[in-house]
Amino acid sequence: MKKIEAIIKPFKLDEVKEALHDIGISGITVLEAKGFGRQKGHTELYRGAEYVVDFVPKVKIELIVEDAQAARAVEAIQSAAHTGRIGDGKIFVSTIEDAIRIRTGETGLDAI
After folding, report:
1. H or E stretch including 80?
2. C-alpha–C-alpha distance, residues 9 and 53, integer Å
3. Which positions ≥6 away from 3 have C-beta within 8 Å?
4. pLDDT at 40
5. Rounded Cα distance, 50 and 19, in Å
6. Strand-pair category, 89-95 with 2-8
7. Which of 29, 46, 50, 98 has its CA 20 to 30 A from that of 77?
8. How many angstroms separate the Cα of 82 from the Cα of each of 31, 79, 102, 103?
9. pTM score
């Protein structure tokens, strides 16, 4: 099993969700996040005063998939979240040893 974590622009969430649904992935977790990388935030004006916004709003998506689905899921996220501009985000893939469904006690692939 693989865990895929993607940090994307918030307005791309619906497109990413649809792209994942189209390849048969329905279970995702979505978290609101703030951060910065090369984008390094931006300046804004509030009541005539300029201030720096260090952290840019992002959305973090997490999903667990079978090893065979991982490459397709990454490609779906990458193509749906792409704008070609700085701050498009990152995708991280890691290995999951086990998963347990709390309600039934199922483990491994049965749990996801």
Report:
1. helix 67-81
2. 16
3. 62, 63, 64, 93, 94, 95, 96
4. 64
5. 39
6. antiparallel
7. 98
8. 19, 5, 35, 37
9. 0.85
